Amino acid sequence: EVTLVESGGGSVQTGGSLRLSCAASGFIVDDGTIGWFRQAPGKMRGGVACISGHDGSEYYENSVKGRCTISSDSAKNTLYLQMNSLKPEDTAVYYCNADNDYWGQGTQVTVSS
Q1: Which of 15, 83, 86, 104 can pair with 6 through a Cys bridge, CB separation 3.0 to 4.6 Å?
Q2: 63: confidence class by pLDDT, cuts 50, 70, 90
Q3: Which helix (H) or strand (E) holds 8?
Q4: Buried b (16+ CB within 10 A) or exposed e, 48-82
Q5: Average pLDDT score over residue span 6-26
C-alpha cells in the first residue's frame, strides 16, 4: 500500500518561504515520477513541480520557475518542495503525487499580502 504524507504548510506573508515535505511509504521516491500539485479554491488541481526517478529530470510550472526547487532524500524516502518569494497567488492546498496514481491528503499554504 502506498501512503504519502505531506507536511510543512502554513501561513506566511508575501516574500516568505516554506519547505513542504512528502514522506512516502510503499513507494520509492527515486523510482517512477513523483511531484507536487496544488489546488486553490474554485480552481482545478494543477501541477507545480515533479521529478523523474528514471533520469532525474525536473519539471516546474511556469509561475514557480526560479522560486521553487524540488528535491528528494533517498535515506528518508521523502520528497521536498522548497518555495521562496511566495506570493498570494501561491495560496492553495498542496498535494504530493506518485506515478499519477497516488495522492497524499494535502497541506495548506496561505500567503497573505
Answers
A1: 104
A2: very high
A3: none
A4: bbbbebeeeeeebeeebeeebebebeeeebbbbbe
A5: 97
The three state secondary structure string of 39-92 is ECCCCCCEEEEEEECCCCCEEECHHHCCCEEEEEECCCCEEEEEECCCCHHHCE
Strands 92-98 and 107-112: antiparallel
3-state secondary structure of 16: coil
Q: How many CA atoms lie within 13 A of 25 on its CB side?
A: 4
pLDDT at residue 41, rounded to an integer: 92
Q: Any idea what the Cα angle at residue 102 is, between residues 94 and 19, rounded to 5°?
A: 30
- CA nearest to 93, candidates 83, 106, 103: 106
Task: Name residue 107's beta-bridge partners.
Answer: 94
According to DSSP, residue 99 is labeled T
Q: What are phi and psi of 9, to 5 degrees?
A: -70, 170
